[in-house]
Write a structure and sequence with these properties.
59 residues, 3 helices, 0% strand
Length: 59
């Protein structure tokens, strides 16, 4: 039986996007996320927010 997904208030304001990553990089990211008990979405969001705040630069 299909379960209804519960959407939080925060999720209602989120938009979908996609990106292309090297297959090996994506696999490593997924494995590390699982090992760290995180989602890829959470990792990406924190990295992007840090970048926007100027916490690090990309060369």
């Amino acid at each position: 039986m299909k379960q209804d997904k519960k959407i939080s208030k925060d999720d209602k304001h989120k938009k979908n996007t996609s990106l292309r990553l090297d297959a090996k990089t994506l696999k490593e990211l997924k494995v590390k996320a699982i090992n760290d008990d995180l989602s890829v979405q959470k990792i990406m969001e924190k990295l992007i927010k840090g970048y926007l705040k100027g916490e690090f630069k990309i060369d």
